[in-house]
Predict the structure.
Amino acid sequence: MLISAPATDEDVAIIPGVNDEMYNPKKHLIVSLGSCTTNAVFPLLKVLHESCSIQTATMLTTHAYTNSQVLLDIEAKDARLSRAAALNIIPTSTGASKMVPKIIPALAGKVEMSSVRVPVGKVSLVELTAQVKKPFSIEVVNKKFEQAARGKLKNIVQFTTEPLVSSDFNNNPHSVIIDGLLTKSIGNLVSVFGWYDNEWGYSERLKDFLLSAR
């Protein structure tokens, strides 16, 4: 059984490109592949931690609205999600941080994640800001992600330095597309931005997993 969301009672949680080696088809009958957001942010965490040694980090996803939201203001238990999706920037929660101990145990308790929903139908943007062990230049950080995109995370991560906007990433099959023009570095703080088609890209990972598990 494949769960297309973060879960609590799965046999194993897998983020393609990050912890694939944990999957044992003889042992794991119920598998969670996380969410579109976890599939976008965990490759960022993996590359940045392995190359720069993350001490602590925060993540914010500026997320396209979803079918859990409403078109008009209504009365509901969640005051913010009861507001019109196409008219507001809406702070909300994300379950991505709960998956950190399962996916990258070394970062357990070191990463906090949050989300805002915006009036866009598809394609989201994740910002990862991390305190790393020592200063790294923007050029070095970008090079690490560019190497990963060409190597071990090919087809999972893409790297670009083109001045693009959200609609340019419609139907992009990668889990996340690093925007090298937005990378920031000051002292021991590094900030990396990644676009992701929160529908198409994640669907590709589900398809890839099912094909490989046959």
In short: The CA atoms of residues 160 and 179 lie 5 Å apart. The radius of gyration is 17 Å. The chain has one domain: 2-212. The chain has four helices and eleven strands.
